[in-house]
Specification:
single chain; alpha/beta; Rossmann fold; 9 helices; binds nicotinamide-adenine-dinucleotide
Length: 254
């Protein structure tokens, strides 16, 4: 097991990629705190991971609220006495051009996708410092690098999250706190279904999305989770400020 004894937080872990990451961390021996906005879904996810032998707690927390992020970190440290890993996964999508996006919609998306990582890291870093170091993993996107049509706020937020990853690595690596990003391609999650459902022809959109990936399919949440384990583990002890695309080759397309 690669994470034995480590204490980890995974945000937005009631479903999708975050849930797969929390399950993988628990399977590798970590104590895991998960959060989401909806208590029933989050408790269900925690119970499912516990049923496989994982040591997991659930806390309802909205990462867009700084006080919720603080409470999540404090409860985790109260429970297990340290913090080693923070995976900033919580995020939402929004299919709008810039003109179509209202000010409220822009702020709402940024408050989760970008402010959420800021809030959680702000409280996680002192806890990691007290624990002798740690690893922060930001779930960015291929949209950190390339634009997708009518996806203005999302692409901007993921570009910002990748740059925040690099900047934080600079500030905190001397204290043995590593910061890395994972940039998934399209992954089979409830959010992807929601994204496709907003298109005028969802099945045509699905085929188009599959075709983005030279590997010929969309990804599975567990394929992102495997990389999140690597970044959380001591196997990546000399890796910081990096990103790894988990995208079936999407980024090498012309
Ligand atoms: N699915 C993809 O194709 C894909 C591709 C690239 C990047 N991503 C990124 O991966 C992450 C997870 O995506 P997913 O597809 O699993 O999404 P999802 O919608 O399936 O799950 C999102 C999770 O985040 C939680 N969440 C949303 N807003 C929150 C908030 N304010 N506070 C706390 N929790 C909140 C939800 O409750 C849920 O548990 C996101 O950051 C997303 O941008 C996804």
């Amino acid at each position: 097991m690669r994470l034995t004894g480590k204490v980890a937080i995974v945000t937005g872990a009631s479903k999708g990629i975050g849930r797969a990451i929390a399950a993988a961390y628990a399977r590798e021996g970590a104590h895991v705190a998960i959060c989401s906005r909806t208590t029933s879904e989050g408790e269900e996810a925690a119970a499912a991971i516990r049923a496989t032998g994982g040591d997991v707690i659930y806390k309802q927390a909205d990462v867009s609220a700084m006080a919720d992020a603080q409470g999540l970190v404090e409860e985790t440290v109260d429970r297990w006495g340290r913090l080693d890993v923070l995976c900033n996964n919580a995020g939402i999508g929004m299919l709008r051009t810039l003109e179509e996006t209202t000010g409220e919609e822009w702020r709402h998306l940024m408050s989760i996708n970008l402010d959420g990582a800021f809030h959680c890291a702000k409280f996680a870093i002192p806890a990691m410092r007290s624990s002798g170091g740690g690893s922060i993993i930001n779930i960015a996107s291929v949209a950190s690098f390339v634009g997708f049509q009518a996806d203005a706020a999302y692409c901007a937020s993921k570009g910002g999250l990748l740059m925040l990853t690099r900047q934080m690595a600079l500030d905190y690596s001397p204290e043995n706190i590593r910061v890395n990003a994972i940039c998934p391609g399209f992954i089979r999650t409830p959010e992807l279904e929601h994204y496709l459902g907003q298109k005028s022809d969802p099945e045509a959109a699905r085929a188009e999305v599959v075709a983005y990936h030279p590997i010929g399919r969309i990804g599975e949440p567990e394929e992102v989770a495997d990389v999140a384990v690597f970044f959380a583990s001591d196997g990546s002890s000399f890796v910081t400020g990096a990103h790894l695309s988990v995208d079936g080759g999407l980024m090498v397309r012309p």
